[in-house]
Amino acid sequence: MDYDCLFCKIIKGDIPSSKVYEDDYVYAFKDINPEAPCHVLVIPKKHIASMDDITPENSEYVSHIFEMIPIIARKGGAENGYRVISNCGKDGGQSVFHLHFHVIGGTELPLHVFPNK
Question: What's the number of domains the chain is made of?
Fold first, then answer.
């Protein structure tokens, strides 16, 4: 754990969250600024800073996250599909440097996720 990390503090219970799912590898909670009716953040319980830091030694956490995302999406309110997003690095829009996946659904999402140029 990184004791200065916001998400590590949420996992420890030092910062409150609206838990959707938890097991030995994963913690999932509602986003405080949701973009859709279902907007859940899914994080590994092991501190991994970003996708660039996934290794053979910690990849079991990421694999387990993807096994649990369908369950988490349904628990979060995404009945008819969802989108999974992960930002990587400053230029990729990552604001908290603890690997996390946004599970967004509960409504029909727009096809385009990038602004028109």
Answer: 1
